[in-house]
C-alpha cells in the first residue's frame, strides 16, 4: 500500500472526532467525497463534524447527511483531526481552518488538483484522478469500509460532476469502470443525473440568459461577465457563480473560456476552462488561484471591467503559446 494511503487510514482510525471541511461554493466532488467519508466514519463508530462556509445548492442538498453541514464553527471545538477535501491550498477552506490548530491537530489533505502544494501533515493527492472521489475510494477500501447504497451514491455524485457527466478528457476507462461498480453497489445513477446534473433552478437559468446575452468571442477566447446587481435582481445569493464556467466551456469556437463573476467586497471570481491541449491552470496559478489544466479558477480584487482588461490578454497568450 502507498505510504500516504497507509498514513491517511491510520490518522482516521486513530481519530474519534474528525472535522471534515468542503471548499466554498461547494461542487459535487467536495460534497460527495465529504459525505461519503462522513458515512464511512460513522460506520466505524466515529463522530465526524462536517463544515463548509457556503450552503449547498438544491442539486446537492438531497444527499444523505447534507443537512448536517455547519457554516461556522464554535470558538471552543472538540476535534482531534482536520480533513480538507478537494482543495489545493488552505485558503480554500474559506477561513474555517484555524492557524492555532497547526501544531496541535493533524491535517489530512485528500485531493486531486495539479496545483496542490502538499500543505498537510499527510497528503493523499492524486493529480491523475478525475475527482477526489478516486483517492477517497482507495482510502475507504484501506479502512475496510463496504462501499454500497447511499455511500456509493455520494461517490457517484463526485465522479459525475467533476467529469461533467462523463464528458471530460479525464473520463478514463478506470472512471467508467468505477461508475459501473458504484452502480452495482447500489449507487443511484439516474437519480444523480436527474437531481444533480439535470436540475437548474429557474432563477439560475434566467441568470444564464443574461450571461449568454453578453457572451463575447475574440479569436479562440470566449468570455462573459456577471455583475453583483444582476444577482440581487434575480434573488441569487452574492457568492453564487452560477456555474458559468462549465456553461461557457461548450462554445465551439473557443479553446479557452472565462466567466467573470462579481462578488462582494469588490472582488471578481473567474472560472477558466480549456480544450485539451490548452492550459488554464498556469494562468490561474499565476493569479493566485489554482485548479487543473482544463478547469481552473481564481478570485481577484477590482471592478469587473478592470479584471477583464487585465486577464483577457493573458488568455490570448495562453492560446498562442499552445499553438
Ligand atoms: P470552478 O471554475 O469554480 O468550477 O473551478 C474550477 C477548478 O478550479 C476547480 O477544480 C476548483 O477547485 C479550482 N479553483 C477555482 N477557484 C480556485 C481558487 N480561487 N483557488 C484554487 N483553485 C480554484
Ligand atoms: Mn471541487
Ligand atoms: Mn474535484
Brief synopsis:
The protein is 37% helix and 17% strand. Helix 2 links the parallel strand 1 and strand 2.
Keywords:
Diaminopimelate Epimerase, Chain A, domain 1; 323 residues; inorganic pyrophosphatase (n-terminal core); alpha/beta; 11 strands; 17% strand; binds manganese (II) ion
Integer average pLDDT: 97
Helix share of residues?
A: 25-40%
Q: What structural category characterises the helix and strand content?
A: alpha/beta
CATH H-level name of the largest domain... which superfamily? Answer: inorganic pyrophosphatase (n-terminal core)
Shape: globular
State the helix count: 11
Strand count: 11
Described by strand count, sense and barrel closure, the largest sheet is: 6 strands, mixed
By CATH, the topology of the largest domain is inorganic pyrophosphatase (n-terminal core)
CATH architecture of the largest domain, by name, is: Alpha-Beta Complex
The end-to-end span amounts to 41 Å
